[in-house]
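Model it.
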Amino acid sequence: MAIAQFGHVAFNCKNLEKSVAFYRDILGCKEKFSFLYEDFFGIIKSSGYPVPDFVFKLLEKKKNKPWLTYLEIKDGIYIELFDQLAAFICHKAKNIHLNYQHFAIIVDDIEATKADLIAKGVKIDTDISFGPDFTYQMWIHDPDGNKIEIMQYTDKSFQVVGKN
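Modeled.
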């Protein structure tokens, strides 16, 4: 396996708006794209997450608010910020701390990387999937359980072209 570059670090945020403002306005990161909660409905319905009805009512109230925002540090290296409610739903209460969530690495060939990792005895936590940002992804973890996302960008990845 060869890492092409560092991808992103992700954080769950108590107040997404304040966190975005901090990274954008204070640290000078460029806001690349956001997903709104109205985008989230289809994602969670198709994901098989066990989401109670009352959560959908909460989501409806937030439909025009972002649940995830990508900020570019430099040259394709990002900070990914999750709203607290989305983080709780996405990560099934396993990792809802308001701090480190995961980091991502970018590879040129995710299939070859998966095969290489398996050959080295690494447990693959998820199969390769194609995300709503048009990027391939799979998950592993380090010996301490810290989550690592492995990504392969495509020519349509929002991280490459933005989101219109």
